[in-house]
Known about the structure:
Elements: H1 9-24, H2 27-33, E1 37-41, E2 51-54, E3 71-75, H3 76-82, H4 87-106, H5 110-115
Parallel strand pairs: 1-3
Antiparallel strand pairs: 2-3
Amino acid sequence: xxxxxxxxxxxxxxxxxxxxxxxxxxxxxxxxxxxxxxxxxxxxxxxxxxxxxxxxxxxxxxxxxxxxxxxxxxxxxxxxxxxxxxxxxxxxxxxxxxxxxxxxxxxxxxxxxxxxxxx
Length: 119
């Protein structure tokens, strides 16, 4: 019998925020965002990155290798540290960072993000 490690409160909050953000995207962007893997990194990294987009963006050619598959990583320990342990700030930073990285994937500039009400 194997047991699954319990999720931390920060991970549970991040999962909820990600689901809420994706649910509020306009339908056409939501369909595109579904093609991008979103990972929640729970192991502290050796950097201060809050999030990272890697791989091919929406308008790039189709991925030819696994390295080109679109993926977003949210670094939860860094986000928690950035929020200084404040849950409200943490939620806001998870949302802001996810939208920032999704904008990279979707090829949106800051004006488009604001126009769509995603900022």
